[in-house]
Write a structure and sequence with these properties.
The chain is mainly α and about 425 residues long. It has helices spanning about 5-35, 50-80, 85-95, 100-135, 140-170, 175-200, 215-225, 260-265, 270-285, 290-310, 315-320, 325-340, 345-365, 370-385, 390-400, 405-415; strands spanning about 205-210, 235, 245-250, 255-260. It is globular. The model has no long low-confidence stretch (mean pLDDT about 90).
Length: about 425
């Protein structure tokens, strides 16, 4: 392949992705608007029209922001690559710092920081305009900036040594460097799974042991019934940032813990909490977490092998507007343009995730009352302003969970069978 051919392929894929993303977004906009006037039949006894319309308006507001973001991200990627920004930053780093390892590290940090700063206004608008307008945001600007600072410091403490290690291995380990890098990447991610609950998550939120003894006893009985051992049941102060509710498992091995947002516990009945927890336990019992981790590690190995094949390909660099060939630039370019060439695989990943959600629902329906999970989900759809009428094609690309009507109907069928 020549550099000009790869440039043409890259630009074609980039603009094709943008067209598809915009087409899907406008389909979603039209579909949600067309169903805004009335609540779907299956939900009319549970959801008020005002709540349904709020969800429609919230969805459309996020979509409008998403449309602008898609165009901006395309322009930014073109500016970094064919526009010459990465080459310019590389030249500056080489002229300013000594040593290939330091120069490469500075270059990657520069690009990541620039990208984060340029994309921050979109996140600020979402948090302090859209989320405020619909009554979800509880975060102050001070807390937002403090979170950003903590994230930056974590990146320095955890991410910078990883980056230095990867670049060193790429330069020193010969043709099989990608195997060594993969081993470091796997080890790093497993380490994060262990330390996240006790050392990282508490930097951003407060976690208190569940105090409600009656509810605690119910949950512990359910855990025992399902054969799940956790290091504790915790309540997270999610309300200091948002009114959105959730529950999740975190940690690995002996550090596993169950976390409930305080907003979720305030909204759901004890039976509904049990049903939501049973769903999460379903992910554990069906080994979804381990399957996803294994899949991620396998894919990362394949991508690192592919990067090794491109490392010395002139057309790869020149086709993306870069004349300097270094391991740092190869790593940076590869992971910047990879989403361009893998976007059309997204429906497969989404379908795989939705399959897991159906399986977890089936498990929950066997352990608890399926109707309680239906009731809990309806409340969560309302509290999170999740549209009940997504466009099917849009959902097939982006939705990691089954659309509300399909999921609720599936649960009702499970309840009838039981």
């Amino acid at each position: 392949m020549t550099a000009s051919q790869f440039s043409a392929l890259f630009v074609s894929a980039l603009f094709s992705n943008m067209v598809i993303k915009l087409w899907l977004a406008y389909r979603q906009l039209d579909h949600v608007a067309a169903h805004r006037a009335e609540v779907p039949v299956a939900f009319r006894e549970k959801v008020e029209l005002a709540a349904h319309q709020k969800a429609a308006d919230y969805t459309r507001a996020q979509l409008h922001l998403g449309i602008v973001t898609v165009v901006f991200e395309l322009a930014l990627l073109l500016a970094f690559t064919l526009g010459g920004s990465i080459q310019w930053l590389s030249d500056w780093s080489s002229a300013t710092f000594d040593g290939a390892l330091l120069q490469g590290t500075v270059l990657i940090v520069e690009v990541l920081m620039l990208q984060a700063l340029l994309e921050m206004p979109f996140d600020l608008y979402s948090t302090f305009n859209i989320e405020v307008r619909f009554g979800f945001n509880k975060m102050t600007l001070k807390l937002y900036l403090l979170d950003a600072l903590k994230g930056l410091l974590l990146g320095v403490v955890l991410g910078l040594p990883l980056l230095l290690g990867v670049l060193w291995l790429m330069a020193r380990m010969g043709e099989l460097w990608w195997l060594y890098v993969w081993g470091v990447w796997v080890t790093f991610n497993l380490l994060l799974l262990f330390i996240y609950p006790n050392y990282i998550a508490p930097l951003f939120n407060d976690f208190e042991p569940l105090q409600d003894e009656a509810q605690k006893s119910r949950i512990e009985a359910l855990l025992k019934k399902c054969g799940f051992a956790a290091s504790g049941l915790f309540v997270m102060d999610g309300s200091k940032r948002s009114t959105h509710g959730n529950a999740y498992f975190t940690g690995f091995g002996k550090t596993k813990r169950i976390v409930f947002f305080d907003t979720l516990l305030e909204r759901l009945t004890p039976n509904e909490v049990d049903a939501v927890l049973a769903h999460e336990l379903g992910h554990f019992k069906r080994h979804h977490v381990f399957k996803r981790i294994a899949f991620t590690f396998a894919i990362s190995l394949g991508f690192l092998w592919l990067l090794a094949q491109l490392l010395h390909a002139d057309w790869f660099y020149l086709g993306l507007g870069v004349t300097t060939q270094t391991t740092a630039i190869a790593l940076l370019l590869f992971f910047m343009v990879l989403p361009v060439f893998t976007f059309l695989l997204q429906p497969i990943a989404s379908a795989y995730s939705r399959k897991h959600e159906f399986e977890a629902d089936e498990y929950a329906a066997r352990q608890t009352d399926a109707n309680e999970l239906v009731s809990a989900l309806v409340k969560l759809f309302q509290d999170n302003a999740k549209t009940l009428t997504p466009d099917p094609l849009y959902a097939s690309f982006y939705e990691s969970h089954p659309p509300a009507p399909i999921r609720i109907a599936h649960l009702q069928q499970l309840g009838e069978r039981k």
